[in-house]
Amino acid sequence: MSYITFENVTKEYRSGENAVLAADNANFAIEKGELCVILGPSGAGKTTVLNLLGGMDRATSGRIQVGGREITSFNEEELTAYRREAVGFVFQFYNLMPNLTALENVELAKQICKNPLDPVEVLEQVGLGDRMDNFPSQLSGGEQQRVSIARALCKNPALLLCDEPTGALDSRTGMQVLKLLSDVSAKYGTTVVIITHNTLIAPIAGRVIRMKNGRIESVEKNNAPVPVEEIAW
Amino acid sequence: MVKNRLFTKFLRDMRHSKGQLLSVMLLSMLGVWVFSGLDIYWRNLDVSIESYFDEQKLADFWVITPLADKDPEEKIRSVDGVEDLMSRLSYEVSTAVPEDAKLVLHAVGDDIDINIPRITSGGPLWDSDSDGCLLDVRFAEANGLAHGDSIVLKIGEEKREFVIRGLVMSPEHVYIAPDVIPEPKIYGFAYVNKAAFPNIPSNEICVLLSDDADTEEAKAAIEDKLPGAFIQDRRSHKSTQLISTEVSQFRSLSKVFPVMFFAVSALIVMTAMTRIVSNQRTQLGLLKALGYGKGTIVLHYMSFGFFPSLGGAAGGLALGRNTLPAFLWNILDDIYILPDVKTAPLSAATLTVCMSSVLLTCIICWCACRRSAAETSASLLRPKAPASGSRILLERISPIWERLSFSAKMIQRNLLRNKIRTIMALSGVLSCTALIITALGLLDSVDHMVDTYYGETLKFDLRADLDEGAGSAGEYRRLIDAGKVEGIMEMAASIRKTDGNGSRAVLLTVVENDHELLSLDTAGTSPGTEETGKNGRNTRQSYPADSYADDKYRIGIQDNRVQHDMPDTGAEYETEIRHRESVIASEKLAQVMGISAGDILKLKLPGAAEEVEVFVERLVPVPIGQGIYMYERSWNSLKKGEFTPTALLIRNPCKEVYDLLEGLDEVTCIKSLQTLRDKTKEGLESLTGVSVLMVAFALVLAFVVLYNMGILNFMERVREFATLKVLGFRHREIRSLIVKENIIIAVTGILAGIYPGVRLTDIVMKSSEPEDMVFSAVAEPTSILAACCITFVFSLLVQYMLAGKVRSIVMTEALKSVE
Lengths: 233, 819
Hints:
The structure holds two protein chains of two kinds. Chain A is built from six helices and ten strands. By secondary structure, chain A is an alpha/beta fold. In chain A, α3 runs parallel beside α5 and α4 crosses α5. The termini of chain A are far apart. By secondary structure, chain B is an alpha+beta fold. Chain B is built from 25 helices and 24 strands. About 7% of the residues of chain B have low confidence. Chains A and B meet through α2 and α3 of A and α1, α7 and α11 of B.
């Protein structure tokens, strides 16, 4: 059985008469330790799928199974525990605490985890070793994004979900970030799911899921992923 | 210990929003401060006075017995409930040294067991000491006397010297004054031994009841046994009554004012907390996404309310204990001779208020974040959709809408689309205006009452008090060259309803038949006043005795018959009052005693053995000094003696009148209306003190409220202002946008606050009305205007402060992160 499975998952938003299907009968599977990229234009439903996978939202119908557990049947507490222990999330808009320094932001995540990594080390790994005591307002977009990644990594999760992690980064920093993510996947066996609208990133993934209008268009397995250094955009 | 980053976040966020949290703290503090201050004050006063009265054995009754009575002591002692009694001679004497002063002298045989004076310096007065005295400490201080010095008293023609053995305060003279306010230099009291006056019999008996005795029954029993006696109980004993009134007045005030403050504080705390939490929406979402549990998150946000309000309540309590009670006590100390302060234990009420303040804030926080905490983190992290565009009402009226400038349109839209924010701001301004109006209204009402009394009720220019050697009113009219000269005869009397036992000592004033200078008109408003009879069924109206109404509800006095029309029952009856004389009662007295026009009362005059039945002809509104009035003709019919004035009321006196009066022996003192008015105002100082306090608090509250509202508005719109800056709006233009918007809110709020302010004044006045006064709530137009202006000025001040903050917005930072 696959590590992650989506079975007929639908997420519907209703406002009065109109119903918007952010996710429309999505079906796919992802294996453990894979680096998976979800591609699609904006409005395709990629973030929705990621939110559902990360236990941040609830599906309207369907089943989502992660590591043998059916998260669609979780109650509030179980979902919280799931997010806490199993998931690391990297947001598109960073979402750092404005009144905490970079280091403190990472420590905020660390303190509720059972097996965290060392925050200082992780920040050094993302290249922010000398910016640890700065506040988000003192960091550039790219630096904030890296703090967000460090925060997610620090939790040492089984599942790392990244929403457009390279969106605001230049190509060099972006590549650094992607390298980090693929290393994490290779070294620790973390299942990494990356959302992007940039098709040029797709080759690094072991699995590519294409979405459009809330539907899964295709799921492709890539048995020969390209190392990050070799792609260019 | 693991560094708790959530706690770090809390501390940093607090520091970041310190303005708002400080407001929450300040508001909790103000509410608790006002309440605890007033509460502690009146409880301290109560406990201090009660224990003073207890320790010094304040009498329950002062019985004045006519000399003819044989063995009054035995008779009183035999009454159930009487624990102890003490005879003495009480008399007002003049002093020769110091000159021109008077003392109320108490000459006691045996030990002083009741109404025991408390020695403040010097030593006690021994039994055998017939040359020593104990002197009023205030009088002594005002006249530069100390123990060891001597005073010379004029007893009749004799002059007697007494040596001051000690200076004292007395539980029965907590208040002692020649007329309106204490004047220690010329009026005090002293205790001597009866042995100093062996030939004069005692004229007063102080009675102490046992703890479980029934006051009314005992009083009735004593009246039965000594029919000619005149009994004053604690309620009619002026000094005791006045200090008790102070306690009950402040007890009422401590209930009303703080409630108002709390209501306003709660409002502001609610808005502040709701907005703090909603501004943290994405952060809340992130905490959820990280895996923090709902409970942890809610606790985290509740602490935003808990700590400031806890700090505020603690601060307020500390301030309340240490500032207000001392301040108010000092004001009181000017007028009353008070024992040392005894602190009462912190009341349950105060503690409840403190805890409620904190609890309320926490509950508000909890409500504010509960809804957010229940949302999924995904929806919390999504930027909140802009409020759906809706056309406001004004837009539909195209002729008006098209004529408005762009900024005017923007302002209108802003105000009406953020209804909650606008309403909260309006409420804030409204409450401030109302509070300031109430505080000023308190001052106005007291002023108005005093001015009405000394001006409309009392219409004289000079009042000369006369002692026993006075002649008749006619004599003085011939003697004194003035516009009008009238005599009044005042005496203490006691009245009782025919059905009940409760007799009450009141002041009876007999006025001349054609009196003018003491107005007994029924308010000059409508020709009649309506009262509901005590059984609630009847509606009666009363008119001045010599006027008749045309409509069907009337009481006419024709041929000594009184006609009552009772339309509810359809009955009509006549009461013959041929053998009864009429009195006029003051409205407040009637209300307190439960009597109405047409009732029959039993009147006991001083020295009389028998009661006389009189009927209440009508009621008059008298602001100060409740009592009953009688015409000269009625007095003459009672045949209790000639109408001998105890005071002369003089209007438009000629220049020489003052000297003339001074030269008359029987004139004891001369006062002008102006002086009396000023002194009465002085005597009401404690109330004006409170009012000033309230104005100060209202101002602070107003400022905090307006600032808080302003800051929150500002913070929510930082991106808006930053964008305007980026677009190239000048600082002046942005500021004018803010100011215009806020002016509309301010003006609307101020106007809306006028009516509640006036109503509130009414409530406050009614609740702090002492038994012998009628407070009519008055808010002068000038006060209302002042309140409006002050609120407006504060509002402007806050806006300019906030507009200044726009200058400091760093555009790049403010527009940086997506919320």
